[in-house]
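#random but structural
TW: two for the price of one
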Amino acid sequence: MNPENFKSLAAGHVVRHPTGYFVFVPSKLPPPIRFDNDLVLKLSRADASLSELSGIGALLPDPHVLIGPLVRREAVLSSRIEGTQASLADVLMDESVPVANKLESAAADIKEVRNYVNALEYGITRLNELPLSLRLVRELHKKLMSGVRGHHATPGEFRKSQNWIGPASSNLMNAPYVPPPPDDMVELLSDWERYLHVRDQVPDLIQCAILHEQFEAIHPFLDGNGRVGRLLVTLFLIERKRLSQPLLYLSDFIERHRLDYYDLLQRIRTHGEWAPWLHYFLGGVEATARDAARRAHRLLALRERYVRETKGATALVDQLLTNPYISIARVSGILKITSPTASKVVKELEAKGLLKEITGRSWGKVFVASEVLAVLEHPAVEN
């Protein structure tokens, strides 16, 4: 880390470690934020979009029907930022009709995505009995990292050694960013948690953006910091009751604007410039909330049509929206009918265009509700 790149002391200071490398020690929270007209307008637009999405969540007849697939979409995108290759179709297919003898790399990627889903669902449930806190952060990390790449990196425990952020070939001496050493990290995490519990002093979305940046700057785990940081955004908004259901996820926006994301976080450390990061974060909330609202409306419209087409087979329709991949055996179990009867039902849905067979086999057939999958996989639109 080159100390000459750090031009301002506004967000922290650079310290030389006794062994020769440099580390960055962030300033305690909160930072000074100037609420000019542009920032206020950006905040207003993000707040409005988030409120609209929260309203949709409150009206859902069965929230899990939409939350399930959207959580998995987020898990895929968040894990992809960290290098996994699993697609949403891979994950949904594996959940519905597990494929034996998968390539080891594919199985590992799907396991990482599943861990993300489990961590998020665990965090949402845990908020009913434990406030968002360092304790919950550690619990999330343990769920996230158990049995996957990085499992050796003490899942559920804050680091006790120095880490760094940079290309695979980088080290402590030349990495673009080296977080605070463990001794400083402990105090900074306590300060981060204190600010996490501050209420009614700063707009929720601004506070969320600040907390996210500081968490990434502290980088308290040896691995998995990015995924935990993105989980915390959703959990923060749920705890503050800004989201009625977990429908907002920023990983898609961050993935599409990844270079800006890293550059703006680093710019805070090097130049103390908070405004560009806040604009980016608020823009991400606005774009993501609008996209999630459109996706939710399309899925609900499909649900309404599918219920009509299946003559009221709501249980089957809801399963297709939760996971569009299905087999005759699953249809039999969902509707509690015999296999021959389930086969007849599936043929009728094929004839109506609701299901499509994708294996080409005469046995062990798998079907997909292509329209549902298309809604989930459709690229986000930012307007």
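TW: number two ↓
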Amino acid sequence: MNLQEIAIELIKFHTQTGNIDEINKAITYLSDIALAIKAYKEIYQKGNLAPVILLSNGEKRDFDVLLVGHIDVVPAADNMFVPNIKDGKMYGRGTLDMKSFAAVGLKLLEYVISEKLPLKFGVLLSSDEEKGSFGLEAFLADNKDLKAKIVLDVDVAGNINKIVTRCKNPVFIKLISTGKEAHGSTPWQGIDANEQIFQSWQNIRKFYPYYNKKTPVPLDTWIDTVHFAKINGGEVANVISNYAEALLDFRLTEKSTLKDLESNLKRLIAEGVDYQVISSGSPVIMKEDNFYISRYKQIAEQYLQQPIEFEYIGGATDSRAFAERGSIIIMHSGSGAGMHAKDEYVEWQSVEQLFEIQKLFLRQLTLNPL
């Protein structure tokens, strides 16, 4: 199998989250690869949830190393599903987030099988990560015995020269505002549900500051943040709204808990407004002096012939579920830009470099068994 060819074929599938026909086609493609390299395959789907595929070098539930990622993408124009390579960069939807790195996982599995490495290795790919990973959540709930000593998280795209050691906890909160209808010309006869949402938001903003491209970047970005993701309220222009709701996207560091957030919300939201926790996870916090993380960093530095930095990011990752199960999470992927944008690209050399680094790491693990 050729690494670039696998990435290109995966990118061609229009696997926007929820496009189940294309997702199933991609899973069939992955199944064909599994057959070709003589890998064990398991496809899981519960009800109407998105499917999950697990490929490994044998039927097992206690992995030495498990590579975790996803095959779904955010929406894009049709031409973004035709990869374009120019000046060493591969452009297209999913090049950076994260089909190129899913291809790395497949090549690593082929390597482990062909070389008969004495490692229990697997690749776990979800297909609704961009909208909550509910399929993966169900899979893990039904497979409580599935564990991995080390998880390679390749879904932190940005820079081959950086290893992520901290990710924030994503918490999605819905504000629900109940008012009283009245004619728009007599607001004193009604209670405006929209207004109550705005009042609540103003209070929340005083506690969680606003940042954008025009404001100074905080000296320390490892802070709690929130953005106003969505709002809906009102039916017609001349009627006071009796119902409104808003979706808020909080990103919390390990210093803040869901309980802390809920305590703040109860104090900050206006009368007539309630809240609902849509989803909450946990931050991923790894010690930078962990033996395996330090060894991985050393291998990467030797291969790249340059220093590797540790960094913290605000984005969420599916590996948080494995951190909760006690896994050592190594978060590293290739370089690129334009994630979720119309100019998304990955620097192809960094994809090949990631494969070689992780291949060397797996080989090293066989010399120093877990």
